[in-house]
Amino acid sequence: MKHERKTFVILGIVTLLALTVVCLYLFVPLKGNIQYILRLRMLKVLAITLTGAAIAYSTIIFQTITNNRILTPSIIGMDAVYQLFQTALVFLWGTTTLQFVDQQVNFALTLALMIGFALLLYQALFRRDGTNLHFLLLVGIVMGTLFGSLTTFLQVLIDPNEYSGLQSRLFATVSRVNTNLLALGAAVMIPVMLYGLRHVRVLDAIALGRDHAINLGVDYGPVVRRMLIIVAVLMAASTALVGPITFLGLLVANVTYHLVDTYRRGPIIAAAVAVSVIFLVGAQLIMERVFVYSTPVSVIVNFVGGVYFLYLVLKERAAW
């Protein structure tokens, strides 16, 4: 009981911190056309909250079913699919044509392509019973490397001016998210996250390991397949909405594990969403007020996340 109370106290603290960072971003400093500025900032905060929630949610599920705390859904090649698609568009039609393409069409095509890739991968590998989850990860790594190599090949052939325009599409940013894209992203992500909450108790059993979960009555294969589809849809929607943020999930999940010492996935997911909002809104605040829009928010998050990833690797190596 005392342990549960401590978990909820920590959850309340991180939620309060997330609200504080959001308020700082919205109201400090606030001068000029207040109504216009507040509307713009609220849209950005909504985009950040939705993206951060999707990444944190999908990473916790992915690490639970793989039973590994240093893996993220990016390992199955979702970021590589996004970068290849955007690069192929610029290679075939150029950035000038893309400026006239409806953002909603680009978002819908990117989302459909990434979800289709994930479903094809899962359908091909989980068609037979007993397929090893680690084999799926291996295939995902190989496909991600292949797509990354194709992306690099196309980028070498692109005109330098076109390549410069492409770079803005390959870095995560919430500045270009418009209201319609936000509504489309919410229409995809929120129902999927609500559906995933129905399986939170099952995830508690899966976190104990495959054999223990099966002994507890979990229909392991179909449940893992549904969880992977949820992860794929959330990662595809968040990446199509703002761009790839590779290390955010790793950073948020592991910080949450240190803060919330519980096996229950419900409090962990809730805390991870709050921590994700703190990191993303904080990074956006620093990017706008300190670096004056000169640095993409993904650079700040990936720098901190990359350093933390090296710390985790060195820590695990010392444990061996």
Total beta strands: 0
The helicity comes to: over 70%
* Low-confidence blocks of residues: none
Q: Give the class from helix and strand content and strand pairing.
A: mainly alpha
Radius of gyration: 20 Å
Q: What is the string of helix and strand elements?
A: HHHHHHHHHHHHH
Shape: globular
Give a quick account of the main beta sheet: strands, pairing sense, barrel closure.
none
Count the DSSP helices. Answer: 13
Strand content: under 5%
Q: What is the typical, i.e. mean, pLDDT?
A: 80
Distance between the termini: 34 Å
Written overview of the protein:
The chain crosses the membrane at residues 7-28, 40-60, 81-101, 107-126, 133-158, 178-197, 228-253, 265-283, 290-314. It comes from Symbiobacterium terraclitae. This is Iron complex transport system permease protein. InterPro entries: ABC_BtuC-like, ABC_transptr_permease_BtuC. With 320 residues, the protein is mainly α. It has 13 helices and no strands. The relative contact order is 0.18. The model has no long low-confidence stretch (mean pLDDT 80).
Short description:
The chain is built from 13 helices and no strands.
